[in-house]
Amino acid sequence: MARFEHTVSVAALDRGWFEEAAGTLVGLLDASRERDGAILLADGRAVDGARLLKGRHLQPGARYGSVPDPAEADEAQDAAAASPVSEEAAVLREWRPSRSIEVESLMEDESFAVRAKIRLRDPLKPRALELSLSGHNPKGGSLYRFSGRGKADLAAWWAAVDRPHTAPPAARAPVSGKAVHRLGKARLTVTPRPAEDGSWQVCVVLGVRGRWLLRPVGAVALFFARGPMTRGFREAVESAAEEWNTTLAELTPLHGEALRTEIADALTEPAEPPEPKAL
Q1: Alpha helices of the chain — where are they, by DSSP H?
Q2: Is the model more confident about 60 or about 171?
Q3: Rounded to an integer, what distance in angstroms lies between the CA atom of residue 221 and that of residue 90?
Q4: Are the C-beta atoms of 146 and 137 separated by less than 8 Å?
Q5: Cα three-residue angle 236-262-118, rounded to 5 degrees
Q6: Rounded CA gap, 9 and 194, in Å?
Q7: Which residue among 126, 176, 192, 247 has the highest number of C-beta atoms inside a 10 angstrom radius?
Q8: What separation in angstroms does the CA of 112 have from each of 57, 85, 144?
Q9: Per-residue model confidence as pLDDT tens digits over 267-278
Q10: Is this prediction's pTM over 0.90?
């Protein structure tokens, strides 16, 4: 089994602000309405890229899809004749803001199908986030199948970062996930602890191992690839930490109506394309 571990320092997130932001987002969506397929916030602005395809808005079974860019519609129609077009949709399984929200995401084309379920418990003051994922090739065998599960126990997270900085890390990781494929398994854990300066020290651990007769082969491959894999793992963790710090610096000063306006703008304004990175 190969084990990769890296610890990064990130800005601490205030629990009160987080619960205020979550409650504001849920409140905006709960007050939204549907008109001719468009999803409108209470101020009349349409949620960008979202359209009701089937069912009743915010009722179990409601199916939502993205709105195609009119400028790209003709190109998409031409491409459809030459290659299969993937279908993407989100199905609302449960909408009870005081108890639970569950959404199922579907993406499918001729070569692959992926299904993901996300459940948020106690959305107004989030207590836990659960994720399940599965994928397969409709025309393939077991080598084209995978599954995964993950959970973020937010109550355990807050308890872990509220401990004295001199205390040992939490015995159980508040965030964990695992993925399974016929050829191997992977397990990820994320454990935070407070630092003396008020920030968080977050330890990310990834374990990977082969299954069945591939264990010896996998061990040899990991022996030669461990260096690049370790560097790639560390870079991914550090990149996520940088994005976390940048986002918190922009959003956490906002409260009340300013926070509500920021979230509403994010829901209704088209997302800007990522800036190209310099080579």
Answers
A1: 15-30, 70-82, 154-161, 214-251, 256-268
A2: 60
A3: 38
A4: no
A5: 50
A6: 10
A7: 192
A8: 29, 11, 9
A9: 999 866 555 554
A10: no
